[in-house]
Amino acid sequence: MGHGHPHHHHDHDHLISGGDLPAALDLSIPDGELSSSDTSRRTFLRGAGLLGAGAAVGGLLGTPAFAHDGRDSDESAAEFNAHEGHNGDLAWLAGDHHIHTQHSSDGQYRVIDHVRHANIYGLDWMVITDHGSVAHAKIGVDIVNPDIVAARKAVKDTLVFQGLEWNIPAAEHGTVFVHPGKNEVAVLKEFENAFDGVVTSTTGQTAANEAVAIAGLNFLADAVKARRVQDAVFFANHPARKGLDSPHEIRNWRDAQPEIALGFEGAPGHQAAGIPAGKGAGSGRGFYDNSPSSSSFAAYPLESYRTWGGFDWMTATVGGLWDSLLAEGKPWWITANSDSHTIYGDTSINGGGDFNAQGRYNDPVYAGPTILTNGDFWPGYYSKTHVGATSRSYAAVMDGLRAGRVWVDHGGLLDGLDVRVGSATLGGTYAVRKGRDVTVTVKVKPAAGPNWAQFLPKLARVDLIAGDVTGPVADKDVFATPRTKVVKQFDVSGSTGVVTLTYTFPDVINPFYIRVRGTDGNRSAVGINGAAVDPAGPAMDVLGDADPWKDLWFYSNPIWVLPLGR
Fold first, then answer.
1. What is the DSSP code (8-state) at residue 103?
2. Of 63, 160, 178, 213, which cross-links 169 as Cys (Cβ 3.0–4.6 Å)?
3. Domain covering 23-84+404-564, topology
C-alpha cells in the first residue's frame, strides 16, 4: 500500500461510459463456462478478496454495472470507474433507522411525536422499529401501520418507513424495514411470526438458531424477488453491547444475503445514558454497561462491552472487527441512531394500559417534573446517519444505504462531508493501473452554527485510516486485521468553511481501502491496538461520567482502491 504523503494534486483521469456486467464478475455464470481471459480476471479478483462466494458484486464492485475489458491500460480502469461518477448529483439525507413508540413494551411515544420531532431536528427519513414480541407480532405490527400512514401525510417532507426491531435468533437485536407499499404489513408480520427469536423461542446461542436467522434473511430476499415488497434491508443494532453477535454470525448474515444484510450500528443510541450521575442516567453511553455472560462470544475482550467516544467497540477499534470485514473486501456499512424510547429532559410518562392485550400503551401523559434519568434523545437531536441519495425518495434512501454512501456524526459536529478517490465516493471502488499514485480528497465542512444543545461544536482533527485488502479469512471468528492503521491525522482546529484535505498513496500495487473519522479533540487515547496503529483514537467511555456532548466524533464508510494490470 505504501507510505503515502499529503499533497494538493488532484487526479484528472478521463472517464468513459460503462456497460453491462462483465462475465468474470457475474457470479451466476459458473467458472467452467468462462473464457480463459475471464477466468484469469475472476481468479485475480478472488485472490484479492474482492470476489467470491457471497461477495456483493453490486456493492464492493459497483452498482448498477460497470465495464472492464481486462486491458493493461488507463482506459480499462476508467471504464471500471465510470459507474462511480456521482459527482454533484447526490442529496445527503439525514436519518435514523432505530426508533421505538408506544407499540414497544418499553416505549411510550406516539408515532407522530417521533416524526414531528425528527422533522424539527433535521431528519429527512426515519424508521419506526418497535420491538419484536408476541404482542407485537400478534397485534402491534398491524395497528402501528395506520399511525405511520397518517404521519406520512401529516409531515410530508420526512420519509417514514415501517420496520421492527428483530430479536435475531442466536444473537442480539437488529433493524428490519421494507419499502412502503400494500404488502409492508403482511411481509413484516409473516417475518416476525416465523423468525423473531422471542416469538419463536430461538434466542439461545445454538447452530440451529443461527440457521433460523439466515432463514429470516432468505425470507426477506424472497419477498423482494417475488415483488411482494419493493425492497427490504437489515442492520444489526448495538452489536457489541452484550457480546452476543459473534464474528462468524455477522459474516454469515452478510454472506447469505449481501443485498439484505447491510451492516451494523457503528454508534448505538441511548447516548444520553452517559450523562454523569446526579444529572442523568449515570450509566454508559448506549447502556453499554454490561459484562460477559454465558451467552457471550467468549473471545471478546472486556473492553468490547463499553463504548469508545460513544461508538461501538467493533467500529471504534482501528484494525478491529469492522476493519477485518473491510480487509476481506466485504461491503459492511455503519450507521448511527437514537434507539429512542424515553427522552432525557422530557416531562411525559407512559400512558399505561394493558400492553399485551392492546398491542400498545395508551398515549403518553405530558405532566410532572423534568425527567433527567432517561437515556435517550429525540431522533435527529444528537445522532444522524447521512445517506447519499439520488433523490428524496424511499427507494433512493434504501439504495444509498445499500451502496454504503453513508457517514455518521454526533452532536452536529459537521455540516457536510465529501470523500473521493478519483471518481469513487463512500461505499465505492476506484480502479487504477498498478504503479500509479492514488489521491484521497476529503472535503469537510465544520459546523457553522450551534447544535441542539445550543453550543457550537468545534472540529479539531480529521483522521485518514487505511487498510490492505488481505482476502477471505480462514476462521470466520477473526475480529482483527493487522494491516490497517491511521496513516494521517489532519489538524483542522479553528477551520471554517469547506476544508479540503488531500493525501497520496504512491506506487499502488495491492488493493486497499480508506475510511475517515474526526473528532472535537476533547477526549482521545492511544488506540486499542497501539500507538503505531492509532496514535490518538477515541477513549473508552467511563460509566457514570460520559457526557455525550463533550466527546463528539464522526465516521465515514470506506472506499476501496483496486489496482488493475500486470
1. T
2. 213
3. Immunoglobulin-like (2.60.40)
